Amino acid sequence: MFRNLSTWIYSLRSDPLGTLIEIAMMVVALLLSLILHEIGHGYVALKCGDPTAKWMGRLSLDPRKHLDPIGTVCMFLLGIGWARPVPINPNNFRKWNRDTILVSFAGIFVNLVLFLLSTFLYVASFRASGAVIGYVRQFLVILLSYNISLAVFNLVPVPPLDGYRLVNQIFFRGQLDRQLNPRTMQMIHFVFLFVCLSGILSNTFSQVCSFCMNGVAQLFFRMLY
Fold this sequence. Notes:
Number of strands: 0
Radius of gyration: 19 Å
Mean pLDDT: 88
Number of helices: 10
Order of helices and strands: HHHHHHHHHH
Strand content: under 5%
């Protein structure tokens, strides 16, 4: 984390305008990625019969409704992060197990769609030229990297991430929540947060994301050129 901070400080000193532009792009891409992820959860929950997220204003594009301070900082510094979980009441679902799986996967699905779309546009942008197109490509790279990072990160089967909910419902039909008491859940949260902040998983996580980005980009290059 501190190495990334020192890199940002050096960049601001050596190229303040370019760095500020990059930070602005990162802010926009981060807000778009995190907010749409959470809206995806809430929207699918609404379609499955649960209006809780809508009643609590979580289908809004207002960043204040969604952003978690620690998760946002981690996204900037470490490339992995999270937003405030959308409130869900599974008792309102029409088919409890199916709808819980759909709602859990919804945020990941949104990020995967954004990743595929931004990667496609990035590859297609090489057909164009001009001064502005360089900034467009830079923004698309940031956007696609954030979204594949969020998708991969949320697939980790650790509470409270979406991957845990998917594993819990698909393989255990929700029974893990009954076996793990609130104190155990809290301990898991703290340990996982420490692991994220320590950067222990950074290399493995970066390799997985890079593999996905390179593979999809090569696929689109073959399709378009």
